[in-house]
Each structure stands twice: as structure tokens, then as C-alpha cells.
Amino acid sequence: MKHVISPLDLSVEELDHILSLAEDMLQNPKKYSECCHGKKLATLFYEPSTRTRLSFEAAMLNLGGSVLGFSSADSSSAAKGESVADTIRVVSSYADICAMRHPKEGAPLVASMYSTIPVINAGDGGHNHPTQTLTDLLTIKILKGHLDHLKIGFCGDLKFGRTVHSLINAMVRYEGSNFTLISPVELQIPTYLKEEVLDQKQIPYKEVSVLEDVLSELDILYMTRVQKERFFNEEDYIRLKDSFILTSKKMELARPDMLVLHPLPRVNEIATEVDSDPRAVYFKQAQFGVYVRMALIVTLLQINV
Ligand code: NCD
Questions:
Q1: Which of 53, 17, 2, 5 is nearest to 295 (CA)?
Q2: DSSP notation for 43-88
Q3: What is the pLDDT of residue 158?
Q4: Which of 181, 174, 185 lies closest to 223, judged by CA?
Q5: How many CB atoms lie within 10 A of CB 86?
Q6: % of the chain at pLDDT higher than 70
Q7: Is 101 in the pocket of ligand 1 (CB under 6 A)?
């Protein structure tokens, strides 16, 4: 039985298979509408979510399966002090697969050690978010046509942004990846990612603090929100929250085929005027999230399609 806790739990071949399956599901949704009949997905969300939880649930419903779960720690027995290990032991007997989001890094990994059903990490603290990465990869693959030889700019909160950490981990496996890391000094990517991933694999990257200086060089701009809930004090959040705001004026500096991705939710970092720019693909990206989750569920349940 396989769990997906980190994007590296899937080999490049498995990733490619999931992305191709997701593309087929997007084109022929009817073909898959009963393939999870009788199967149940549990969504165990100890932290707020809109897209991730609802797209997991929509994915399972599109496959003809059913869903159960909770959407906040307060409405589960976590509020009474129950451990993740005990919760998952019980949920294993209620459902066939589960997606877990938790504020503590490593919680889904702990769950996977006690689970008898596949556990999918739906975001653990500031650490990883592998299904957002699948969503991002599908978006890039469909809209750019390839995943190699891309210059990606990550902008915003690169310290706490788990979607950034997971996408970097996944992209370093494709040839010719080149990263521009755009953030205030206080929100640069964690040292472990620089030393153990970028430096070790000799991936070209640079760190800058002014978006306008690099916009014209990028194939993809991956914008992120400053992760308020991970800050230790409000003063720092207020000082840093509006570090970058993408506007139509700034978009004039970018290539005509640059794509703007954002895992959402957006706060202030992309002005709404940018939404009508054909290069702004973040709402399409959110739609693609349903299909990669459908493909992942079917793969982990080992359903022949
Ligand atoms: C992201 C997350 O939860 O990490 N959202 C998402 O899953 N689409 C990004 C964020 O919250 O900023």
C-alpha cells in the first residue's frame, strides 16, 4: 500500500502516469464516472481549506465514490485531545483512502504509520503539499506543453509556503529547471532546501528581492500569499504582507507567453485587474486540481481503468 506524504513518494514515471490519466479524465470524464463506486474517501482537515478539500471531495464524487470527514480540528475529537494515530486507526475502518491536512509538519506521516488505508498529505504546516504540486505540474504540462527547461520564478513567502517547497522538490527532477527566488530576506526558502536539494543537485538558482528586475526572464511566475498563520508575531506579518503586488503595469514587463500561477487563496499579492490577462491561469489551475486528485485516488486504490 502506498501513501503520498511528499512529492518524492511518486517517481517521475508514476507522476507522468498520473498526469496523463488526469488529462484523459479531463477530456473523457464520463469514462471514469463509476470507477470508484462503493469506495469512500475520508477528508481529515485540521486546518482551513477551500480548494484542496472541496476538490478532493468533487474528485471522489466524479468517480462515483462517496466522501466523509471533518473540516476543522474543533469539530473532531482532536478538540478532546485525541491523537492523530488513534484517529487514523479508527478512520481506517470507515473509509478506503484518506486525505489529511494538519498544521503540524509530519502529522500525515505519523498517520501513515498507523493507517491501513492510503494516506494523502493535503498540506502539513509549512512543509509539503504534494497534491497542489500535482495540480501545478498538470497546469504547466497542459498550458506550456512540457515540464523541462523552464525558468520558474517563485515570489512571496518562500519560507513558510509549502506549495513552493513541494514544487521545487518536484521540478528539480526535470532537466533544465532554473529557479528565481523572489522574496524579502526574512521569507527566503529554508536552508535545508538550498543545501540538500538545490546545491546538492547543482540546480541553477538566484535569490532576488525585486520582482520587476526579473519578470522579463521568466517562463512561469508562481505567486504566493504571505502565510499569516505561520508567523510568530503580527508586526512582522504586517510589515511583510504587501512585499509584492503583481499589477497589469508589471505584467507589461513579462513575456507574452509567461504564465502566472498561484495556489490560491489570493490576498493582496495579485491585483484583480490581472485576472483578465490571458497569462493569468490560477483559476484554471484550481479546476485542474480536481482531475489530478481523481487520477491520484484511482492510482492509490489500484483501480484498473
Ligand atoms: C495553499 C496551501 O494550503 O498551502 N492553498 C491551497 O492548498 N491551494 C496555499 C496557501 O494557503 O497560501
A1: 17
A2: EEESS--SHHHHHHHHHHHHTT-EEEEESSGGGSGGGGT--HHHHH
A3: 98
A4: 181
A5: 13
A6: 100
A7: no
Q: Residue 66 has what DSSP assignment?
A: E
Residue 15 parent element (H or E): helix 12-27
Mutation test residue for ligand 1: of 132, 230, 292, 293, the one with most atoms within 8 Å of CB: 132
Instruction: Name the grid cell of 218.
Output: 521568466
pLDDT in tens, 131-187: 999 999 999 999 999 999 999 999 999 999 999 999 999 999 999 999 999 999 999
* Nearest by Cα to 153 from 125, 175, 111, 182: 182
| Burial group, residue 65, by CB count within 10 angstroms (0-12, 13-18, 19+) | buried
Contacts of 179 (CB under 8 A, 6+ apart): 151, 152, 153, 154, 168, 171, 198, 203, 204, 205, 206
Strand 205-208 to 178-182 pairing: parallel
HSE (side-chain half, CA atoms, 13 Å) at 158: 28
| Dihedral angle over CA of 84, 97, 136, 128, nearest 10 | 20
d(CA 191, CA 172): 16
Which DSSP category does 246 fall into? B
Tracing cell 494515530 back to the chain, one arrives at 85
Single-letter residue type at 175: E
CA 289 to ligand 1 center in whole angstroms: 12
For ligand 1, whether the C-beta of 115 sits within 6 Å is no
How far apart CA 72 and CA 94 sit, in angstroms, is 19
Cell 509549512 locates to 126
